[in-house]
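Support request from a user on the community tier.

User writes: "When I paste my structure tokens into the form, the page sometimes reloads and wipes my input. The last time it worked, I copied everything first. Here is what I submitted, just in case something in the input itself triggers the reload:"
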């Protein structure tokens, strides 16, 4: 019989079990009746014929069981019996069941939560057809900074002319699309005065074709839409439902996007949110609308560029990310051609540079093609190391959990040694004993896994909200989908094997030893295994607590950093004037109107406007020449500020003066540098009166201020140069003002509403993204360190609790097992102190071995922590000493109750019980 036929027969036998039993009984009766009829035909009496037929046919029950076993029903029956036995056993031991299920729920739930975030950030592919065909491009250069895909020296942005050349070179080998980063746009719907801030992308005409996305309604963008003058848009399914209320006549409706009237031509497929997994887009518009939509974000300039003109024709402005769909069969041929075409563009761009060093740096850029199935993610580069570390830590938590439950089951099996011996004596096989105990383990694991799935869904949503600092809907990539469910089921099954296999094997062995009359040996064997498991718990727990302490100290060290500015009584507002339709030339006038509107508010001490805010992730840099230093460009970060900026932020003046009202467009060009620039390029000399500039040294340095951490708290201060807003010779150019700082005398939180209302009243058309106190921005900047430290602390505390419970359980079991011995010793004159020393000595031996193993694990695992630490070394001796002292105290407390129970043993009662 073929395998498929056997499988079909077994499934039929299991599904239609009663019918199969009736058919089997009928067939056996038929054959027995035929045998009786043959005996009657030979002249026997009915009684003799039945007896003869029974002798010839054999045992009906045995034959029936043999037939059932051949059909696979016996295994099914035994499994059902094991399940019934498991439920009865757990019902008789509700405390054990509750402890095991709750402990497993914590361990599996924590793993589910971390995996949900890890999968969404690191592994989950975009929900697109044939996502493995997608690739993205970046230039690898000797300089550069971190990008959303991780790594440094990677330049993800390309100019529009470069994209057109690459798309033409790709030809029929695939399709290519260009898109901006997902950015916030202001959308107004007719009959609705409220602006809706949604994430949008400017895309090329083959964007949706490359993504293999079909329209849910209407159509998608075409080449005519990109070439034409009429502004059109495609909205997401979420936008259609949330903002347009699922209108049936959505196609053809009008919207106003950043002040530009556009017409909706289609709705994207449900679930499609663009290329950025954690910055979901809801609106797509032709890339040729860049200037009309006032898009001026996420760009880099290589060489001379006119930021006031359209970017479409400028090869020096890089602002587009490129994605292509290239089948694997065409990739080997297409990639070298694309690299050659890109290199020609690099050479042409390098020829525009005036200095040999800049030209050589540009020529070192090479095109790299990498898979794009996972999409872009801003969280990937920031949280990947932290998530991998948390995955390691939470896996150790689950191992400690398994060891704890294995100890419970071992102790229970040791107490059932006589029962197991009786069952083996009655014919139970070793395999049946093992299978029954594994069935119990799987039942506990499935119950704990179900509870862990529920806890993990809740915990993962909370974790993502903490990471993203949002209270709104979460990105779809972080949903607990079938991948997470499969992980939870797999973790539950693996957990059942890990904590259930050893107790099951020991149970069968103890039962066999009991049959042979060696009652003490199986208990000693179980005790040794329980001690080994406790030692493993202690070792893992030491590493986890040590990691938690280091990460906690890292968080404290960063929180104690002097940011270089006064963070109290500080309110900031971030806004987007370019998206609001303000021309770059209006930036000085806008700053004056904002200052006038806010300076008169009660409780406001000073107000300033700047290009970039503090701890805002805003950065702009250029190559400067500095008088009195070696030739060559010095890369300095730039900021444009109003005169009261330093008084408002609290950045201290070190030398010279700050800006004043005399530093306007008709006055001489001036600048202020920070201490890092002064120390790095003017060491031992005064920079006051020196000059700096781009091609000419035309700007005088009039002051030196302290270092302020402008990017993040844990990054070192960057070399910064400040210019006054409105200065003609060093103009702000196309760089928009995006930040307003307010110093108040009272509670900063209470001033937020009044400041927001004043800005709205003064500039109704200005899109204000956020008004908040500076402490909130600093808290958000510490989100990674805080989440990692809090989770590591929780994991460490949980494992410390489990390890102490494990030690308590082993010592308590040892006291219970040796009750008679302790009673005899006390009857013969042993003092209570001797009994306490015996229990504590047993604890000390386990702690010593566990601590030694923990120190080895810590030495091996500490290197995984180095990338997340600040101000503390991976093998910090003070932290290690604190961990060991903590463990000594906690484990001594865990040993106290068993020692107390031992000294309270009544010798007479113990001897009578024995």
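"...and here is what came back when it finally went through:"
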């Amino acid at each position: 019989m073929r395998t498929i036929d056997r499988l079909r027969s077994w499934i039929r036998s299991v599904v239609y079990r009663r019918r199969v039993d009736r058919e089997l009984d009928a067939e056996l009766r038929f054959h027995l009746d035929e045998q009786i009829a043959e005996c009657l035909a030979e002249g026997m009496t009915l009684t003799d014929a039945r007896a003869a037929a029974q002798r010839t046919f054999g045992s009906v029950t045995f034959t029936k069981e043999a037939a059932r076993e051949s059909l696979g029903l016996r295994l099914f029956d035994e499994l059902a019996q094991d399940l019934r036995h498991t439920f009865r056993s757990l019902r008789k031991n509700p405390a054990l069941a509750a402890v095991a299920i709750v402990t497993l729920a914590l361990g599996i739930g924590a793993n589910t939560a971390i995996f949900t975030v890890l999968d969404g950030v690191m592994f989950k592919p975009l929900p697109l057809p044939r996502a493995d065909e997608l690739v993205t491009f970046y230039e690898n250069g000797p300089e550069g900074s971190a990008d959303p895909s991780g790594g440094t020296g990677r330049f993800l942005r390309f100019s529009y002319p470069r994209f057109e050349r690459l798309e033409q070179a790709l030809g029929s080998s695939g399709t290519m699309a260009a898109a901006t980063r997902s950015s916030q746009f202001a959308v107004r719907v007719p009959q609705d005065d409220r602006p809706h801030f949604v994430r949008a992308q400017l895309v090329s005409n083959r964007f949706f074709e490359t993504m293999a996305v079909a329209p849910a309604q209407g159509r998608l963008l075409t080449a005519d839409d990109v070439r034409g003058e009429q502004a059109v848009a495609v909205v997401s399914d979420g936008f259609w439902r949330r903002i347009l209320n699922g209108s049936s006549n959505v196609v053809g409706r009008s919207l106003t996007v950043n002040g530009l009237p556009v017409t909706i031509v289609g709705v994207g497929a449900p679930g499609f949110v663009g290329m950025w997994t954690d910055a979901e887009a809801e609106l797509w518009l032709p890339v040729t609308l860049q200037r009309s939509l006032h898009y001026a974000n996420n760009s880099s300039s290589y060489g001379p560029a006119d930021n006031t003109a359209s970017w479409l024709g400028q090869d020096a402005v890089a602002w587009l990310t490129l994605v292509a769909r290239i089948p694997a069969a065409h990739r080997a041929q297409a990639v070298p051609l694309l690299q050659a075409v890109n290199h020609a563009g690099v050479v042409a761009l390098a020829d525009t540079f005036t200095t040999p060093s800049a030209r050589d740096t540009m020529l070192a850029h090479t095109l790299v093609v990498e898979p794009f199935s996972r999409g872009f993610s801003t969280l990937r580069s920031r949280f990947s190391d932290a998530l991998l570390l948390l995955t390691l830590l939470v896996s150790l938590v689950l191992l400690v959990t398994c060891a704890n439950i294995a100890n419970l089951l071992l102790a229970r099996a040791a107490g059932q040694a006589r029962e197991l011996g009786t069952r083996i004596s009655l014919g139970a096989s070793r395999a049946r004993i093992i299978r029954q105990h594994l069935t119990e383990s799987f039942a506990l694991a499935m119950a704990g896994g179900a509870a862990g799935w529920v806890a993990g869904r809740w915990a993962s949503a909370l974790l993502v909200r903490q990471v993203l600092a949002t209270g709104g809907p979460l990105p779809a990539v972080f949903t607990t989908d079938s991948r997470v469910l499969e992980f939870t089921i797999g973790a539950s099954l693996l957990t059942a094997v890990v904590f259930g296999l050893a107790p099951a094997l020991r149970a069968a062995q103890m039962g066999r030893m009991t049959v042979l009359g060696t009652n003490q040996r199986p208990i000693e064997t179980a005790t040794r295994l329980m001690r080994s498991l406790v030692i493993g718990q202690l070792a893992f727990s030491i590493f986890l607590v040590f990691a938690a302490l280091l990460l906690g100290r890292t968080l404290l060290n960063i929180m104690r950093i002097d940011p270089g500015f006064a963070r109290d009584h500080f309110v900031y507002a971030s806004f987007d004037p370019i998206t609001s339709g303000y021309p770059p030339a209006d930036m000085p006038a806008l700053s004056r109107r904002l200052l006038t509107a806010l300076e008169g508010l009660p409780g406001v001490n000073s107000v300033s406007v700047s290009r970039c805010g503090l701890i805002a992730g805003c950065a702009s840099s250029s190559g400067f020449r500095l008088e009195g230093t070696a030739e060559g460009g010095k890369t300095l970060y730039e900021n444009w500020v109003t005169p009261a900026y330093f008084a408002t932020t609290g950045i201290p003046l070190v030398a010279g003066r700050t800006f004043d009202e005399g530093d306007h467009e008709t006055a001489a060009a001036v600048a202020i540098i920070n201490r890092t620039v002064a120390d790095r390029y003017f060491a031992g000399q005064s920079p006051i009166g020196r000059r700096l500039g781009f091609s000419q040294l035309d700007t005088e340095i009039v002051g030196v201020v302290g270092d302020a951490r402008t990017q993040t708290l844990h990054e070192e201060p960057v070399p910064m140069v400040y210019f006054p807003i409105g200065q003609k010779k060093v103009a702000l150019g196309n760089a928009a003002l995006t930040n307003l700082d307010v110093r108040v005398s009272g509670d900063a939180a209470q001033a937020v509403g009044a400041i927001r209302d004043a800005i709205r009243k003064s500039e109704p058309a200005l899109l204000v993204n956020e008004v908040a106190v500076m402490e909130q921005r600093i808290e958000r900047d510490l989100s990674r360190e805080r989440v990692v430290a809090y989770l590591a602390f929780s994991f460490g505390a949980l494992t410390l609790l489990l390890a102490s419970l494990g030690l308590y359980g082993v010592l308590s079991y040892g006291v219970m097992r040796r009750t008679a011995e302790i009673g005899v010793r006390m009857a013969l004159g042993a003092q209570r102190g001797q009994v306490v020393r015996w229990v504590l000595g047993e604890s000390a031996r386990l702690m010593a071995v566990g601590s030694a193993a923990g120190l080895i694990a810590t030495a091996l695992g500490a290197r995984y922590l180095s990338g997340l630490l600040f101000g503390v070394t991976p093998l910090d001796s003070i932290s290690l000493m604190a961990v060991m002292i903590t463990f000594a105290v906690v484990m001594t407390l865990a040993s106290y109750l068993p020692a107390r129970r031992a000294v309270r043993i009544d010798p007479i009662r113990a001897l009578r019980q024995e």
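Agent notes: The reload is a front-end session timeout and is unrelated to the input. The longest strand covers residues 196-203. Residues 520-559 form the longest helix (40 residues). Escalated to web team.
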